[in-house]
Amino acid sequence: MRWTDLRVGTACNQACRFCDQVGLAGDADHDAVIAAMQALPHREGLVLAGGEITLRPGLPMLLRAARQLGFRKLALQTNGQILAAPGAARALSEAGLDAVALALHGTTAAVHDWHTATPGSFRRVVAAAKQAIAAGLAVRVGVVVTRANSAQLAGMVDLAHAVGAGSMRMVLCREEGAALTEARMLAPRWSAAAEALVPAAERARHHGLDLELAGLPPCLAGELRPLLADGPTVREADRVYVAGAVTREARAYPAPCDGCSLRASCPGVEAAYLRRWGHGELRPVGAVHAEGVEIVLSTAAGATSRTLRQQMVQAQARGARVARLVEPLPDVAGLIRDAERLGLTVIRAPS
User: Fold this and answer.
1) pTM of the full predicted structure?
2) Rounded-to-10 torsion of CA 50, 54, 59, 63
3) Are 188 and 170 in contact, with CB atoms under 8 Å apart?
4) 3-277 falls under which CATH superfamily?
5) What is the rounded average pLDDT of the residues 135-164?
6) Which string of DSSP letters, residue by residue, matches 46-108?
């Protein structure tokens, strides 16, 4: 399903240290939001976002209007502070809401509340998740990965599973907005983030929780590459600002990207990151060649699901287009899903 993020303003009840809307002001009125909905080229999934979308007093009316316009699924991107109140999530569900994407930035109040600069926000977002589940809403957890919370990523997956979330999205903090100040320097190094994300991905597979990653260069992702979302260039096409538009600097392809076999599918890297840290971490993948079109995955030589994923990622980078799965295999459903995310054609074969 194609989703569009409709950003309708910047008013918020938190002061997140990584916010990319710092310095922006403005909230679209009801009629402007309705007009923006009507102008969208499809009627599939619609995510209403802010700022903090639940601050809008007319939110139930917007949800009902979206239903009348024929949108198949409706979701909110929210920090969960208002949804923590008993009955708030159920009221929005009755107005037509299907799902919420809740922002979680730590496994403890100390870490989460520091990121949001809002005491009590951790307790409330956990309560919001439980209220949303009780109201029949699907819950997705969104995490901004920073230098301050990267050690807790695996624990955040466990917490998301514990509160009933079915999916997660982890995006690396950008070198922009509030995070740009020298005093904070919240954006993590790519290599350190990749290392911290591996155990998080393993916990997600353990729980059967769908995990999506964004902001990590694909050449550094290794076995995480199947989890990478479409690049920001693609996702920005499905983000519509009705008010408070964020202007992003064009992404770059430094010298190591020349000749990398992943360049055609890579959205590039942040120019601000390169100015601060350089491009020494990038590890371009060898040029694609015609040999090895098929990768055969089996448990020969004691291969585990993790090593099989590594083999698949490496083979795809070398030009493989087909994954032949010789069963039985551990976590075959997960291997098939990851192969398809890599663009490989899957052939299942008995041993």
Assistant:
1) 0.83
2) 80
3) no
4) Aldolase class I (3.20.20.70)
5) 97
6) EEEESS-GGG-TTHHHHHHHHHHTT-SEEEEEE-STTTTSTTHHHHHHHTT--EEEEE---SS
